[in-house]
């Protein structure tokens, strides 16, 4: 008599109760205020303190080939984990993450008032007329209170993306990097909500460009052709969006007024390729992680499978937004890349992926027979590692706080 809609209602009610628990339970036990970060550790989502040390695991767990986007709500109460198989949520007190009904992709954002979810329906590309085959994706809008499996309202079509641009044969270091960082270089598409009807978005993946979508009219425009959205970062209070440009500046957009400011960086030897940005919690600084390419790893003969031989030195800088001065904090050689980055008051944390050095050495020494596939279990010993690189923003002292970590994100507390 009641049917599937009644069952979905029970599930949604259970989720709402779960997400309300942190506020209700705070007087009875730990308030969760010590939670400063979230990441995936040993293949399971975990909450961590300001030192980068895990406090408790919440799930979900991950298997090979799965990636996710972890992000906090602006009120710092809820952590969302967006995976290809669905959207999960937990609170600062932890507990098992609950899976929300429906499918929303990993390219999504929440309106500034916290009432609406916007997501790209990335399984439904549509060719855009008169663009030589470029595609757009349906952008859907859904009230948070209606996340019961209902498909969101079609707001329009967003993007001018290269078809099949996100499809690549990724193995080893690249496969570890893509889980949270996307493709090394262009990263992955993203959405950012403003304080009006406009959404900012990656417009032209894998090429540069920032787009604007008006959710009221359904109009999409390419707003800034020089903006590099793959490295872009929004501040913890979601009022500013910063990213590098192809002209060598760091550009900051005010999501309330729509204004912008450029910071031109002049540094000996250049700033390299900016891979990640992160805001300080007080919005006075932007941390810049740049990569400086080294000579690729040398293979004596073609490998039996696709293998990325890139290797780089990364350098972490702090850009003071008050006076425009930049200072180098730390550097690290021999990395494949930094797939995510976050900042607290005391530290900057970056997920560093090791290069494919061990695998290249094994191939060159003949330890891997011709015809071996990348999925062969015998190659498990040659997988690179990932590390949670921690840099003290006052002293520049750097160390690895943890291994086997990815997807780090900072809780928006000030």
Q: Can you give a write-up of this model?
A:
The protein is mainly beta. The chain has one domain: YVTN repeat-like/Quinoprotein amine dehydrogenase (Methylamine Dehydrogenase, Chain H), CATH 2.130.10. Helix content is 10%, strand content 42%. The chain is built from 3 helices and 29 strands. Strands 8, 9, 10, 11 and 12 form a 5-stranded antiparallel beta sheet that branches. A 4-stranded antiparallel beta sheet has the order 3-2-1-29. The longest helix has 23 residues. The protein is globular and about 60 Å long. The N and C termini lie far apart (50 Å). The relative contact order is 0.12. The N terminus is likely disordered.
Structurally, the number of domains stands at: 1
The DSSP helix count reads 3
The largest sheet, given as strand count, sense and whether it forms a barrel, is: 5 strands, antiparallel
Q: What class would the helix/strand composition place it in?
A: mainly beta
Strand content: 35-45%
CATH class: Mainly Beta
Q: How many DSSP-defined strands?
A: 29
Radius of gyration using CA atoms only: 21 Å
| Global mean pLDDT | 90
CATH superfamily: YVTN repeat-like/Quinoprotein amine dehydrogenase
CATH fold name, please? Methylamine Dehydrogenase, Chain H
Low-confidence stretches: 1-29
> What is the CATH architecture descriptor?
7 Propeller
Range of helix content: under 10%
Global geometry: globular
């Amino acid at each position: 008599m009641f049917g599937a809609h009644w069952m979905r209602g029970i599930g949604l009610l259970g989720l709402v109760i779960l997400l309300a628990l942190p506020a209700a339970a705070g007087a009875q036990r730990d308030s969760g205020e010590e939670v400063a970060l979230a990441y995936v550790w040993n293949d399971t989502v975990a909450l961590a303190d300001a030192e980068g040390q895990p406090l408790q695991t919440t799930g979900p767990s991950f298997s090979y080939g799965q990636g996710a986007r972890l992000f906090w709500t602006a009120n710092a109460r809820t952590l969302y984990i967006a995976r290809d198989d669905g959207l999960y949520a937990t609170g600062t007190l932890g507990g098992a993450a609950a899976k929300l009904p429906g499918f929303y992709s990993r390219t999504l954002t929440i309106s500034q008032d916290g009432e609406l979810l916007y997501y790209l329906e990335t399984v439904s590309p549509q060719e855009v007329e008169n663009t030589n085959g470029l595609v757009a994706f349906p952008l859907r809008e859904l009230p948070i209170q209606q996340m019961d499996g209902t498909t969101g309202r079609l707001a329009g079509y967003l993007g001018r993306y290269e078809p099949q641009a996100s499809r690549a044969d990724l193995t080893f270091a690249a496969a570890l990097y893509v889980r949270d960082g996307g493709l090394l270089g262009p990263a992955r598409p993203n959405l950012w909500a403003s304080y009006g009807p406009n959404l900012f978005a990656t417009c032209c993946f894998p090429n540069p460009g920032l787009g604007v979508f008006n959710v009221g009219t359904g109009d999409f425009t390419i707003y800034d052709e020089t903006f590099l959205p793959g490295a872009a970062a929004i501040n913890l209070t979601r009022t500013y969006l910063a990213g590098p440009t192809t002209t060598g500046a760091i550009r900051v957009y005010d999501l309330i007024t729509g204004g912008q400011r450029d910071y031109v960086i002049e540094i000996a030897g250049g700033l390299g390729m900016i891979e990640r940005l992160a805001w300080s919690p007080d919005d006075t600084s932007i941390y810049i992680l740049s990569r400086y390419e080294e000579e690729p790893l040398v293979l004596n003969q073609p490998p039996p499978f696709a293998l990325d031989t890139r290797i780089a030195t990364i350098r972490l800088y702090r850009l003071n937004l008050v006076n425009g001065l930049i200072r180098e904090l730390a550097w690290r050689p021999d990395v494949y890349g930094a797939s995510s980055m976050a900042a607290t008051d005391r530290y900057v944390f970056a997920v560093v992926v090791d290069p494919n050095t061990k695998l290249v050495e094994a191939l060159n020494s003949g330890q891997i027979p011709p015809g071996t596939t990348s999925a062969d279990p015998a190659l498990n010993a040659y997988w690179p590692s990932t590390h949670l690189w921690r840099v003290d923003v006052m002293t520049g002292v750097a160390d690895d706080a943890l291994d086997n970590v990815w997807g780090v994100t900072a809780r928006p507390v000030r």
